């Protein structure tokens, strides 16, 4: 395992951008990580809204040569209103997956240019709700809101069609297609099988749409999250474009929007031995160039004008915007384990849930000794009474980790936790949820609606 010093990758594009060194001390933006811990304590998150904005502008610049690009932010990645509003202010739309997220967007954010509604069972009425997501979208469209509902199933189409006939009103919709049959089983997650209308069901979907009040405006697909091979994104764009052109002919209409879903990958791995096979093989600029070229080529070959391209980006926009700060409480050796354990005052089970359930690798730096060369391998554990509460260990891709000699009182910094870790937080062992601060040490207030959406 490499003993790469954090100085070799910190503050480089696509790696640890908000972090930097001033002398021998580690900083997050303009604030010393060590001093932030001394001032506010530990087991806390630090978020950089500047990095959110920087990522957003980079995405927009990557698609600058394609004028018909509409970026959309997947709210599930990080539902902090400050994050979503930062993106909305840059003309990003918001993608939601249920009625709770939609109501959150409508009540917490201002000036949202457009909303895309995905998700399962949008035709059902959730507990304590008075209407389905489809009914709510219909009301918003009557208010002239730019909101599109992407059907996930035939049942949803049938429900919406009857509702439109009953209300004598039109509904702007999209079709979310399940393209799993076009990929090898090893190429995408089997769990995606439940998302989107199967391609063999497409004739039935088109039949329902014909001569109805459902006005098809978009075709969407989502082949997964953290897609590290560019060729899969290109294949998705290719297949989706052909389906869009096919459906246009059958319905005799123009489908304005091609929605590529999410999946743009993050470079979680910083050290050389991990970068080759586990980091994405493309940059955001390469993604944009290849995707737009592929779609443009297909449309031009068919004598059609290229469509609006939508992406539902979440992880790539937010992952590198947050760190988690922990304090080492003790170290210990056990006869059962090859590596010494570091015990922290945080919990992977409550603070970085993905490290436990999917073995997500998050880089970890000893911020107290960040200028020292890593020399020793450690397992890193949380404070709860659960065997699986580990940030890093050989059981999965999370460890062990090479750090300088680490002692009680040292501050550990867990990188790239801005995507999905906040919404996955929980209160296992009755631990309170870790607070969130800005780099200046100011507390970040979370919306009460985020935790009590009625």
In short:
29% of the residues lie in helices and 21% in strands. The protein folds into two domains: 6-48 and 319-450, Lyase, Ornithine Decarboxylase, Chain A, domain 1; 50-317, Alanine racemase (TIM Barrel), CATH 3.20.20. The protein has helices at 33-40, 49-62, 81-88, 99-108, 133-142, 154-167, 202-209, 230-251, 272-278, 284-301, 315-318, 348-351, 353-357, and strands at residues 19-22, 25-28, 31-32, 44-47, 69-74, 93-96, 115-117, 147-151, 171-178, 197-198, 214-220, 257-259, 308-313, 322-332, 340-344, 364-366, 376-381, 390-392, 401-403, 411-414, 436-437.
Relevant terms:
2 domains, TIM Barrel, nine-stranded mixed beta sheet, single chain, eight-stranded parallel β-barrel, 454 residues, 29% helix, alpha/beta, Lyase, Ornithine Decarboxylase, Chain A, domain 1
Walkthrough of the structure:
There is one protein chain. Helix content is 29%, strand content 21%. With 454 residues, the chain is an alpha/beta fold. It has two domains: 6-48 and 319-450, Lyase, Ornithine Decarboxylase, Chain A, domain 1, CATH 2.40.37.10; 50-317, TIM Barrel, CATH 3.20.20. The strands form three sheets. Strands 4, 14, 15, 16, 17, 18, 19, 20 and 21 form a nine-stranded mixed sheet that branches. It has an eight-stranded parallel β-barrel with strand order 5-6-7-8-9-11-12-13, surrounded by five helices. Strands 1-2-3 form a three-stranded antiparallel sheet. The longest helix has 22 residues, at 230-251. The radius of gyration is 23 Å and the shape is elongated. The mean pLDDT is 92.
């Amino acid at each position: 395992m490499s003993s790469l010093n954090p100085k070799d990758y910190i503050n480089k594009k696509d790696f640890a951008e908000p972090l930097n060194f001033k002398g021998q001390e580690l900083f997050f933006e303009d604030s010393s990580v060590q001093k932030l811990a001394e001032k506010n304590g530990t087991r806390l998150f630090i978020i950089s809204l500047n990095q959110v904005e920087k990522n957003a502008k980079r995405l927009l610049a990557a698609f600058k040569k394609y004028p018909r690009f509409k970026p959309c932010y997947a709210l599930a990645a990080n539902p902090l209103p400050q994050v979503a509003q930062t993106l909305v202010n840059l003309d990003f739309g918001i993608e939601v997956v249920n009625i709770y997220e939609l109501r959150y967007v409508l009540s917490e954010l201002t000036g949202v240019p457009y909303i895309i509604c995905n998700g399962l069972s949008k035709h059902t009425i959730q507990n304590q709700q008075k209407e389905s997501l489809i009914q709510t979208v219909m009301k918003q469209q009557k208010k002239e809101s730019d909101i599109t509902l992407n059907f996930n199933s035939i049942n949803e189409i049938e429900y919406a069609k009857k509702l439109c006939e009953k209300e004598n009103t039109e509904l702007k919709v999209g079709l979310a297609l399940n393209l799993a049959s076009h990929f090898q089983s090893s190429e995408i997650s089997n769990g995606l099988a439940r998302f989107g209308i199967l391609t063999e069901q497409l004739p039935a979907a088109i039949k329902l749409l014909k001569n109805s009040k459902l006005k098809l405006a978009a075709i969407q697909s989502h082949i997964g999250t953290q897609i590290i091979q560019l060729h899969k994104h290109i294949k998705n764009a290719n297949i989706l474009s052909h389906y869009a052109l096919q459906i246009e002919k059958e319905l005799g209409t123009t489908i304005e929007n091609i929605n590529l879903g999410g999946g743009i990958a993050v470079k979680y791995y910083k050290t050389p031995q991990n970068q080759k096979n586990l980091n994405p093989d493309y940059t955001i600029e390469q993604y944009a160039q290849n995707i737009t070229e592929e779609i443009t080529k297909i449309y031009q070959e068919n004598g059609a004008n290229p469509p609006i391209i939508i992406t539902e980006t979440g992880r790539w926009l937010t992952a590198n915007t947050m760190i988690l700060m922990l304090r080492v409480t003790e170290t210990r050796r056990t006869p059962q384990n090859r590596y010494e354990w570091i015990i922290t005052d945080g919990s992977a089970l409550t603070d970085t849930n993905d490290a436990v359930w999917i073995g997500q690798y998050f880089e970890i730096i000893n911020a107290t000794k960040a200028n020292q060369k890593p020399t020793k391998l450690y397992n890193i554990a949380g404070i709860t009474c659960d065997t699986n509460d580990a940030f890093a260990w050989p059981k999965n891709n999370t460890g062990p980790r090479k750090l300088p000699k680490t002692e009680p009182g040292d501050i550990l910094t867990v990188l790239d936790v801005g995507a999905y870790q906040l919404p996955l937080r929980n209160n296992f062992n009755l631990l309170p949820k870790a607070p969130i601060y800005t780099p200046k040490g100011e507390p970040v207030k979370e919306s009460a609606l985020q935790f009590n959406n009625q």
